[in-house]
Amino acid sequence: MIRAVPSNASDNVYCTLLAQSAVHGAMAGYTGYTSGLVNGRQTYIPYYRITEKQNNVVITDRMWARLLSSTNQPSFLGPKDISEEKKEMPETPLLDDGAVDIPPVTKEVTK
Question: Is this model's pTM higher than 0.85 or not?
Answer without folding.
Answer: no
